[in-house]
Amino acid sequence: MLRDQSSIVKQVGSRPQTTILNVFELTGVALFTGKIVRCRFLPALPDTGIIFRRVDLLDKPCIKARASSVVSTPRCTVIGENGITVQLVEHLLSAIYGIGIDNLIVEIDGPEVPIFDGSSQQFVRSFIEAKTVSLAAQKPIFKILEPIEVVSNGTTVRATPCEDLTFSYLLHYDATGVLEHQEYLIRFNQERYTKQVCGCRTFSSYDEIQPLLEKGFIKGGSLENGIIVKEGRVINEGGLRFSNEMARHKALDMIGDLCLIGYDVIAHYHGDKSGHTQTTKLAQLIEEKVLEWVHQTPQLVQEWAHTQ
User: Fold this and answer.
1) Where are the beta strands (DSSP E) in the chain?
2) How many domains does the chain have?
3) Three-state DSSP class for residue 1
4) What CATH number has the domain bearing residue 94?
5) Which residues of the chain have pLDDT under 50?
6) For residue 308, how many other CB atoms are within 10 A of its CB?
7) Which residues contact residue 306 at a Cβ distance below 8 angstroms, ignoring those fewer than 6 apart?
8) What is the pLDDT of residue 4?
9) pTM of this structure
10) What integer pLDDT is reported at residue 5 of this predicted model?
11) Annotated active-site positions, please?
12) Domain region containing 298
């Protein structure tokens, strides 16, 4: 079930757009294919947005990271255009949003973003080292005015009006032990994201992941790139980084999927057992409402920019 109100967003300001200062590269293993993937990150001009360029293919086709580009959500978020896709984009997009990067070219030589340790920490560290710079162009800031939610198969993800950008997640499974119940809330800023969220790893139960490993569906999976829970206990050496690391990682994923809106939209975003399917649907709905505002009131958008 999808609930929606006709006028749910309004522009409330603007800020300078950003990009990275220095080019850098990262190389890592892809979770699903098991292949080594190289990513090269380049600065981009104002209003470029986040672009993935498949440099392994003829003509190096590009995919814009927008909610409308989502093509599927099979245990991760997949974006695509004209039959060309990139999967597992959510951890990278979470880092991009967490650091506050608006314009970026990501050259990638395969169909999947590297998993690294299962968090967004490696991306965040590299973006901090590369530094961000402000550009001579403004980006509008919006605010949610009315609640909007996506409800599906016992899961909910919603955006409600809030003065501060906030993300929260409630995790509860029909299980005992560490996966039974966790929750997390962050009043978002870059420092909190970097200290509290970006290092939190993806996770799975042993019973769920073992058949996928045996069938070769997750060729790059290991205890080095995710938390595994067996009989209610974490089997990774060193245990958890936070007692509620799984709920924090779900917030990390949610931030990455909502980055696909392409604009700052202030709200309290809350997930209850939700995943990529529900969150990307919410992102698509909000993206549509934001673009309606931009197209209907272009003069107001520009007036905000000129007053900054």
Assistant:
1) 2-3, 9-20, 24-29, 36-43, 50-54, 62-64, 70-72, 78-81, 84-87, 104-108, 132-144, 148-152, 155-160, 166-171, 182-187, 203-205, 227-230, 233-234, 264-266, 268-272
2) 1
3) coil
4) 3.30.230.20
5) 1-6
6) 10
7) none
8) 42
9) 0.94
10) 42
11) 276
12) 2-307
